[in-house]
Amino acid sequence: MKKKYSYSISHLLVSTVFLTLLVTFSLTASGQVNANKNLKFKTVKGLVLNKETSKPVIFASVFVKGTNIGTVTNSEGKFLIKVPSNLANSILGISSIGFKTFYVPLSSLMNKKNKLELIPAIIPLNEVVIRHLDPIELLNTAVSKIPVNYDRKAVNMTAFYREFIKKNRNYVSVGEAILKIYKASYTKGLDNDRISIFKGRKSTAVKNMDTLLVKLQGGPLALSSLDLVKNPGDILSPDMFPYYNYQVSGIVFLNGRETYEIHFEQKDTVSLPLYQGTIYLDAKSLAFATVQFEVTPDKLAEATKYFIRKKPAGLKAELLGAHYLVKYRKIGKLWFLNYVRMEDEFRFKWAKKWFANNYTIVSEAAITDINQENVFKPKFNERIKYGDVFSEKVSAFEDPKFWGSSNIIEPETSIQSAIKKITRKLKRWQRHHHN
Q1: Which of these, 236, 255, 258, lies nearest to 246 by C-alpha position?
Q2: The whole model's pTM is what?
Q3: CA 365 to chain centroid
Q4: What residue spans define the domains of the chain?
């Protein structure tokens, strides 16, 4: 008897693209006074490198040991973390898959230009042990242990969120925000996460009136939708396991702990577009530590329709790639969501034009603090909804004085340059239209 699909790609991946024709500029607005302007903190910037190769270590977890404060390195291995002054004598930790966890006193670091090197961790593989590990059994056990490994109570989280859109090589939209999150219990399925914007800022550049405007719908809700432990969807749902081939490919160090590396890919007999990637299971607790995955490359054409919410007639859309990363961090005895990243690439071509344009849409969020006391939900009318477009909402939360005290994902130089360039263009446009 053929098993029925539990197919939910359009629900799991909230990177729905909303396409319209642009007719006006998007302008920024000033926000309210920052309530945290007197907060004292120590700022540390640095670059994390592989000690053996001197190459940057991307998306490594950077945290203050014994606290809930943390961030991640960006796609160039750079990070920026801000620590309250009363924790200035604490220890900074850095961890990444395949490396020994690195610790250094915060007091020994400069405010910037710190170069920190991670040592690769090599675990001698016992081939007999690896061959006898049953990946399906490991995954089923990991699912059954979710109530033990993850919080049964709701918590409040603070996160830094960044979203940008590139047309070919040029940034056309960059936005970022501090998010306040009500993270529901992992054992109460009816209690949904709620996310609200606390502070935000954006820049948008548009070249001409007939430019295609690409918008990401519901971006910050990736925090809840891409939390695969809470929303297993088509990857961690046990009823989806029969649709994939699994292989325990080795044991690596992650967060200083031995971790099973389980590769998965959809079976050749499965026609609908699913995923391929790697699941990292903590060997001792069998907690899901990290999941890296992408839409199966040879199924991208079939998957395109699940990503496009609306587009003009005569426009051909093609999904070129869809990549995702979900990381968890162990604090005390429990594991918490730590970082999520989505990167989707599309090609758009008008029917009667020779040339096509590629659009890359990236959104990422790093949990910077967790509060398990006096947990509250954002007001219902303040929550972000799936139909919301972040770039259209964020201007209402701008506050230039605020950003000095928030842990952020250190932007790539190209993004910093893009924001400055975009802002100058917008100011010139405003002056021209107000004169």
Answers
A1: 236
A2: 0.83
A3: 4
A4: 9-39+122-434
